Amino acid sequence: MRTRKRILVAAARAFAAKGYPAVTILDVAEAAGMTKGAVYFHYENKDALALAVTNLFYRRIGEIADSVERLGLTPLGSVAELLLRTATAFRDETVIQAGARLQLERQMVGVRLPMPYEAYTERITSWLAKDREAAARGDLPGPDTLATVLVSAFFGAQHISWVLGDRADLVERTTALVRTIIPSAEADIGRCPSAPPRP
């Protein structure tokens, strides 16, 4: 298990830095400090490595969402905190960066990768559906629509932030996104552990 983890960490670094087409098994083996044969013993080819790294990406996203759920925030607070924690992970975690890049390059990978965005959108929708106060006020779109808009805006923001500045400003972009799309969540954002101070 330790060897497989070492290989996956090396593969994630390579995929994040160079992209799927440019990475070779030799790149992964050298980064992991082992032979190509040792990598092939655990993963039959580059596609298998890409799938394993992508599965790690989704597992990590699920862990982030579970950690937010345990905080007991309001529905809007949970959504804001999830987006902020996801932004931090995109900025700081190699596995997340690799998974995001592999999803963009999914047509080049020779195996079927998990479908992006769906589970994330469903989680946000389920939280928003619990917000009876917002539903009663009628100041927000329905949960399905709002979740779709938030996820679309977030993943667009992370891509722009990646292209323009290696995601250095992604948390700030995400905070602005949430405050703009759901301004009624301002008080909830203020209670989010990951929220940066208001400028």
Report the strand count. 0
Instruction: Give the fraction of residues assigned to helices.
Output: over 70%
**What's the helix-strand series?**
HHHHHHHHHHH
Class by alpha and beta content: mainly alpha
> How would a textbook summarize the main sheet?
none
Q: What is the terminal-to-terminal distance? A: 45 Å
Helix tally? 11
Uncertain ranges = none
What is the approximate shape?
elongated
Q: How large, in whole angstroms, is the Cα Rg?
A: 19 Å
Q: Which keywords apply here?
A:
mainly alpha; 199 residues; 11 helices
Provide a descriptive summary of the structure in words.
The chain is mainly α and 199 residues long. It has eleven helices and no strands. Helix 1 crosses helix 2, helix 1 (2-18) crosses helix 4 (46-69) and helix 9 (143-165) packs antiparallel against helix 10 (170-181). The longest helix has 24 residues, at 46-69. The chain is elongated, with a radius of gyration of 19 Å.
